């Protein structure tokens, strides 16, 4: 997804990327807002080596949920796949809550039994491509995160393409609704997917307290960057709050301080320049 966005993005637009039935991307124009919106990218300077932590922090069994729901959801799961995208996701969320009821996770033996296979067969099918070291798997939480996050994407898209903001001299309510969806993503990453970290949580708290509509992690998580939806007139306050309450406590080089916070607006992605006869065309 990140690579697709870096290629297909257009100036002033978000990019709606889909992989079903094949890769596609289309620009979604950000409407004019009052106050104007900016994206602020804030680095946590926390590093998570995925090669080392992946077997421990791996958050899902690849391809498992489809198989589980197929075996246990029957016609309800098949029917959900024929609805509109938002209806489908809402139904899948309901099916997850009805089917995956264990809050404390599932053992390998329980999962294998549900799929009517042996534990070695389970490990070969779902755990051989990526190594996994775990005794219990929080399948309910992971599935709920994936489906609710997909629903938030659909809702965010509908907001951007809807008429809610048209003609208004103040779009604060619209801005806050976009922010609510992004904040819910952070909550879900922290509580259901468990891919946040204390430093990212702190950065989000500081930014929201300084005037951001929303703050959430971005990327794989457990460190790295966060993204914040901020009214343009609040950007200096957010940057100052992050400096005083977070970055001042770290031992950073001048270069790191310079790169810690980046203010961004939707920009164009990569391009190909054709050189003909020594001239760009």
UniProtKB/TrEMBL annotation:
SUPFAM superfamilies: GHMP Kinase, C-terminal domain. GO terms for biological process: galactose metabolic process; steroid metabolic process. The keyword Kinase applies. It comes from the Eukaryota. Residues 175-247 form the GHMP kinase C-terminal domain. Pfam families: GHMP_kinases_C. InterPro entries: GHMP_kinase_C_dom, GHMP_kinase_C_sf, Mevalonate/galactokinase, Ribsml_uS5_D2-typ_fold_subgr. Keywords: ATP-binding, Carbohydrate metabolism, Galactose metabolism, Kinase, Lipid metabolism, Nucleotide-binding, Steroid metabolism, Transferase. One of its GO terms (molecular function) is galactokinase activity. GO terms for cellular component: cytosol. Belongs to the GHMP kinase family. GalK subfamily. PANTHER family: GALACTOKINASE-RELATED (PTHR10457:SF7), MEVALONATE KINASE/GALACTOKINASE (PTHR10457). This is GHMP Kinase, C-terminal domain-containing protein. It comes from Trichoderma citrinoviride. The lineage of its organism: Eukaryota, Fungi, Dikarya, Ascomycota, Pezizomycotina.
